[in-house]
Amino acid sequence: MWEQIRINKRNSVLLLAGMALFLLLLGFILGVALGGPEAGWVGMIVASAIWLILMLVSFTSGDQILLASSRAVPVNPDVHPQLFNIVEEMTIAASLPKMPKIYIINDPAPNAFATGRNPQTASVAVTAGLLARLNRDELQGVIAHEISHIVHRDILYVTLAGVMLGSIVLLSQVFLRGLYYSSIGGRRYSSGGRSRDGGAQAIFFILAIILSILAPLFAQIFYFALSRRREYLADAGAVRLTRYPEGLASALEKIANSSVSMQAANAVTAPMYIANPFRGRNAAHLFSTHPPIEERIRILRRMSQGVSYRDYEESYRAVTRRAGIIPPSAVKDEPIPPRSPSAPSTQTPAPTDSTQVNRQIGDLMRKVNGFIFLPCSCGITMKIPPNFPAPKAQCPRCGQIVAIRR
Amino acid sequence: MAAAVMILLFVVLGIPILLVLWGIGIYNTLVQLRNQVENAWSQIDVQLKRRHDLIPNLVETAKGYMKHERETFEKITEARSRAMGAKNVAEAAKAESALSGALSQFLLVVENYPDLKANQNFLSLQEALTSTENKIAFARQAYNDQVLFYNNKIQMFPSNLVAGMFGFAKRDFFEIEQPAQREVPKVQF
Asked: Same domain, yes or no, for A249 and A382?
């Protein structure tokens, strides 16, 4: 996988350089348009400053921005001990230097993503819907997929690209609004300063046009970044880590069968997820970044003999009838047999009907939000909000007064 | 004339310096890899220790429910004390794999005790045990991966030159005894 890591590092540099060139050009054009030919340099200096800020922001807090925009909340082990155990298992299996930080997204749709600058600063975010639907082996498969993204350094590139794309979208929005308001202003105060208004308007107009042409282009680059290849490679890595293709396969199946669209995802963050977060009409367009999920499942299900990269490669060729996907250096003769599924007693039976799923999601989010779960001797559990003022609560069924342990 | 001497001087001094720098680079990589192997090994130790700490609690909780499984518990406790008192690595490896076997059998028979499976305390212990078992397996897997990488590096040219010079020794894989796989199935006619 060294090749993939190298490609990702190179792409990150290319992305930053491309962004710098683009901004310098834009700065130059603007400078010339605003203050004549000699002001082009000023524009370029301003552009470099913007680029520097953008780069600093995406390097130091790009992951935080993406997590916050996905409404992910950092959690402690008490909220979901199994999730923490599984992430630790996969951290050990992948020999990562540090366990990634864990976030939960309050969303009923099952999905997950990883972000961060490098393995030391990585984060993994999963939705409450995912935790409620998957059993242990399936969750392990999903987490292994995300850990593989971290190992392959997909996360840095994706985070940089995400922040860059986000800021371009934001800038083009700003200029479009500017254009809109200046045209309104121009109409209202048409008596004075007509010519100056016209100049500003023209520049806003040019900017808006340039950016609205380029924003989709950058979006396309971003989507290429998350090409299908990365997803296949992360699947292959996940299987090699867990030694259990069926776990990830059946997790992907459950994700594919869920009809819930993700509320917390947007066009910028969509490609980061393990599976396309949108259902319905706009899915076809976005699906270009994610390989068809049924194909991924078929590849995984075909790997009954072994779980090495070579086995994935063979299965991939057989299912898709395309040339290879794994870098040749990683395809080695290593006979790794798949393991058997975990003992049934360790698998919490995943709920089947939607009421149960929703109930579990609700409980999980209450835990995330610091609710206190207070069992009463009559058998029911009271869920006390964190800002509940009294030290004791009365059981609504049997009327008993129970002290709240904080 | 003076220029030629200078060039000669640069070449004569430059080549050894480049060679030394290159050697330092390889040496550092090897040290890094060796440390990763050590680290992976200590990870296995950490998880084995955690398993030892977990067992008494688990046995205590499950005992009351599983009256008919005294044999399983005895096997677990015995393997644990043998593993903790092991004098050398071979002994420890043997006892630990016996312990793994006893625990996986335990996780299977738990299926027959629905009352136990409803006990919240037991469920969290069981999750801890399952996870520790997994961590041991994954730590072993990661250790073997690291050893393979390290061994390849110290055997392949040119890094084998540096490895030989500074005595980087080959490491052994962590093989586990799997009685079920080793034993030849008995066939009776």
From this structure: no
- A273 and A394 both lie in a single domain: no
Measured CA angle at A132 (ends A122, B137), to 5 deg: 55
Residue B10 has a pLDDT of 86
Q: Which two tokens stand for residue B145?
A: 């991966």
DSSP-based three-state secondary structure for A123: strand
Minimal CA separation from B17 to chain A, in Å: 28
Strands A392-394 and A381-384 come out as unpaired
Question: Which CATH number is B20-171's, of 1.20.1440.20, 3.30.499.10, 3.30.450.280, 3.40.50.11810?
Answer: 1.20.1440.20
Please check whether residue A86 touches B, CB under 8 A: yes
Residues 6+ apart with CB under 8 A from B167: none
Contact A331, A293 (CB under 8 A): no
Q: In chain B, where does DSSP find H-type helix?
A: 2-63, 70-84, 89-109, 114-118, 120-155, 159-165, 179-182
Task: Please write the tens of the pLDDT for every residue from A282-305.
Answer: 444 444 556 788 889 999 999 878
List pLDDT tens digits, range A102-142. Answer: 999 998 889 999 999 889 999 999 999 999 989 999 999 99
In terms of residues, how long is chain B?
Answer: 189
Higher pLDDT, B162 or A280: B162
Between residues B116 and B35, which one has the greater pLDDT? B35
Total structural domains within chain A: 2
CA–CA gap between residue B174 and residue A153 (Å, rounded): 28
Q: Name the DSSP letter for residue A281.
A: T
Q: Which residues of B touch A136 (CB under 8 A)?
A: 130
Of A89, A343, A344, the CB nearest to B138: A89
In Å, how far from its chain's centre is CA A245? 22
H helices of A189-286, in order, are 194-225, 228-242, 245-257, 283-286
Q: At what angle do helices B2-63 and B120-155 cross, to 10 degrees?
A: 150
Distance from the Cα of A331 to chain B's closest Cα (Å) equals 14
Contact B72, B109 (CB under 8 A): yes
How close is the nearest chain A Cα to the Cα of B54, in Å? 15
CB-based contact A150:A241 (threshold 8 Å): no
> What's the CA gap between B125 and B56, in Å, rounded?
11
Question: Is A146 one of the catalytic residues?
Answer: yes
Mean pLDDT of A163-168: 72
User: Which of B36, B131, B141 lies at the smallest CB-CB distance from A85?
Assistant: B131
Task: Tell me the pLDDT tens digit for each residue of B80-113.
Answer: 998 888 877 778 778 888 888 888 888 888 888 8
CB contact under 8 A, B141 and A95: no
Is A94 within 8 Å of B142 when comparing Cβ atoms? yes
Q: Give me the pLDDT at residue A281, please.
A: 44
